[in-house]
Amino acid sequence: MKGIFPINKFRDLRTPFYYYDTKVLRDTLACIHEEVAKYGNYAVHYAVKANANPKVLAIIRENGLGADCVSGGEIHAAIKAGFPADKIVFAGVGKADWEINLGLDHDIFCFNVESVPELEIINELAGAKGKMANVAFRINPNVGAHTHANITTGLAENKFGISMQDIDHVIDVAQGMKNVCFIGLHFHIGSQILDMGDFVALCNRVNELQDKLEARRIRINHINVGGGLGIDYGHPNRQPVPDFQSYFELYDNHLNLRPHQTLHFELGRSVVGQCGSLISRVLYVKQGTNKQFAILDAGMTDLIRPALYQAYHKIENITSDDQMQTYDVVGPICESSDVFGKAVDLNGVRRGDFIALRSAGAYGEIMASGYNCRELPKGYTSDELV
Ligand code: LLP
């Protein structure tokens, strides 16, 4: 065992695979539980999109979180993992009829609605079943988050949500409908947010809107502020559990929640990011013209974040203690963007060494693809490998 990895248990496994350290996951969930308990009216939903591995979902469900789903497939996964339907919220800019029907059949807690045409279809489908659907409107608060452009969602130019100006009209439309019940407002400004000022800006927008709607005597029972809390990719061991204390405290300090309201969160990355690593073996060490390559059996099909977002994942040689050398760490896929890191310092690499790509629990396994007819990576928990 080097560091936190049970390498002896890895030897019999086919690489690449995801390894989930359940202690880190459970510590993270315990911290969320403890912090949320300080406020009587906070509810946390796990954003299933970050990782839907059944073993990971089961642990999250055991710890009492609800589920934030963005597709019928995610609703199936959440139900299968035992999440109670009345703790499931369903978001997404393009919900298909069968997905809406699935939500209605399970009597999920709420649909986060992103447009009037969608609202009309939910009303119609709920009517056909003789049901009432709870709806919250996703508002585009036009707040820019200081994160990668591909994962900013709260700007006017993004496809998400309803603009602040249109919301009065949309609420009026909903209130005139027979089979939807307007219960709340939903926001989400982006992901991997480390500048807490972005969340303060969101709180200010929510406060503005609440005051405006209150003046019209519109009652709102639920405010959902989405997710977005970032993790420390540079130092996965330094603070594996994100600073939930400051995060929830920020909302307590800045969001003017009314006594009858519940504040909902949809956290993904901050729940599962640090518990997962992608484990691969070195296939070859290749001498290039003026650099050397460590060629792994894992590629962008297993972890696409570096190729797609130029994301940084800490890379470690967990087999060797040899002197540090510098490598470009690459995968086997036929794409030049199949690079995990350039000029990475690693303990001297040999064929067969295990390489860990850290902080890969969120948007790792779930975003894997079968490009090049590759098999999808499996996921193992530390509980299974004792
Ligand atoms: N709620 C909504 C409406 C969302 O769109 C998202 C993420 C979340 C909650 C959860 O956000 P989190 O707490 O995980 O930041 N694949 C990208 C991230 C995409 C995030 C999409 N939405 C990545 O690998 O960085």
UniProtKB/TrEMBL annotation:
PROSITE patterns: ODR_DC_2_1 (PS00878), ODR_DC_2_2 (PS00879)
Keyword Amino-acid biosynthesis attached: yes
Primary role: Specifically catalyzes the decarboxylation of meso-diaminopimelate (meso-DAP) to L-lysine.
Lyase listed as a keyword: yes
Pathway: Amino-acid biosynthesis; L-lysine biosynthesis via DAP pathway; L-lysine from DL-2,6-diaminopimelate: step 1/1
Name of the featured protein: Diaminopimelate decarboxylase
Catalytic activity line of the entry: meso-2,6-diaminopimelate + H(+) = L-lysine + CO2
List of residues that carry N6-(pyridoxal phosphate)lysine: K49
Binding site residues for substrate: R269, R305, Y309, E335, Y363
Binding partners and assembly: Homodimer.
Gene transcribed to yield this protein: lysA
CDD domains for the chain: PLPDE_III_DapDC
One annotated GO biological process: lysine biosynthetic process via diaminopimelate
Organism of origin: Prevotella heparinolytica
EC class: lyase
InterPro entries hit by this protein: Ala_racemase/Decarboxylase_C, DAP_deCOOHase_LysA, De-COase2_C, De-COase2_CS, De-COase2_N, De-COase2_pyr-phos_BS, Orn/DAP/Arg_de-COase, PLP-binding_barrel
One Pfam short name: Orn_Arg_deC_N
